[in-house]
Design brief:
With about 250 residues, the protein is α/β, with parallel strands linked by helices. The protein has one domain (about 1-245): 4-Layer Sandwich (Metallo-beta-lactamase, Chain A). Helix content is about 25%, strand content about 25%. The chain is built from eight helices and 13 strands. It has helices at about 40-50, 70, 75-85, 100-115, 125-130, 180-185, 205-210, 215-220, and strands spanning about 1-5, 20-25, 30, 60, 95-100, 130-135, 140-145, 145-150, 160-165, 170-175, 190-195, 220-225, 245. It has a seven-stranded mixed beta sheet with strand order 6-5-4-3-2-1-13. It has a six-stranded mixed beta sheet with strand order 7-8-9-10-11-12. β9 and β10 form a beta hairpin. It is globular. The structure holds zinc ion (ZN). Zinc ion binds near residues 65, 67, 155 and 176.
Length: about 250
């Protein structure tokens, strides 16, 4: 499993995209979150890493929660993939995996920009753009080639942390979360853990991550730090856009 880091910023960043990644397993690609402007987000991460993918290559999108910096790329992805299907260059709508709580609000968020298209002669629905699948905490879901488990984090809105496994190796993704030791303990079985850090409310100050056992810190990488974050405050490496993790 290889992971292309596509965004490392927090919601207020002037220089980074929202924290996000694309997981490569076999010949399949699974996106973790989808910040705007997603086509450019992918393009720049590819330019920095040597990967050659566009949104066309991604069949599965996991949306951890509905904060803009994690999901506002869905409109352009949904529309571009719809156009691709109309042209015949794509067969099926991409699958979108998220919590039941987020799924219930998804179309409310997307409808103003996606609810009508000239020429269709009918109102559009979420099913025109995405095959929505529910991630249920405590259950294992099939997401493309991966087995994905989810855990509800402590955040402003319903949010899922993730364990993604290809059967041999596991990636842990904290998603946005307040410091919660039980969440870190849940992620600790992973071979690589991408954890958020931020001093803002409902996020995880780095001091709490610095206190983790050496074996956990050794496999941890950081995203979601505020602009200007001093990397010397921790021995846990800070990720950059375009980094590739070998899990
Ligand atoms: Zn958030």
């Amino acid at each position: 499993m290889r992971v292309l880091i596509t965004g490392v910023g927090d919601a207020f960043s002037r220089v980074h995209y929202g924290s996000s990644a694309v997981v490569e397993s076999g010949r399949a690609y699974v996106a973790i979150d989808c910040p705007d402007p997603y086509h450019r987000v992918l393009h720049e991460a590819c330019g920095a890493s040597g990967w050659r993918i566009t949104a066309d290559a991604i069949d599965d999108y996991i949306i951890t929660h509905l904060h803009a910096d994690h999901c506002h790329g869905l409109e352009t992805v949904g529309l571009s993939q719809w156009v691709a299907r109309m042209k015949g260059s794509r067969q099926a709508a991409p699958r979108l995996h998220t919590s039941a709580a987020a799924a219930g609000k998804l179309w409310e968020m997307l409808e103003p920009g996606m609810g009508t298209l000239i020429g269709t002669g009918r109102p559009m629905t979420i099913e025109d753009y995405f095959d929505v699948r529910i991630l249920t905490p405590g259950e294992t879901a099939k997401v493309g080639p991966l087995a994905v488990r989810a855990r509800v984090t402590t955040h402003h809105v319903p949010t899922l942390g993730l364990l993604l496994s290809d059967g041999a190796r596991t990636l842990g993704w904290s998603s946005d979360t307040r410091y919660e030791q039980a969440h870190i303990d849940w992620l600790a079985e992973a071979d690589v853990i991408v954890h958020e850090t931020s001093p803002l409310p409902a996020h995880c100050p780095v001091e709490h991550l610095n206190e983790q056992a050496a074996a956990v810190r050794a496999k941890m990488r950081l995203v979601h730090a505020p602009d200007g974050f001093d990397a010397m405050r921790t021995d846990i490496p800070l990720l950059r856009e375009g980094d590739v993790l070998e899990v």
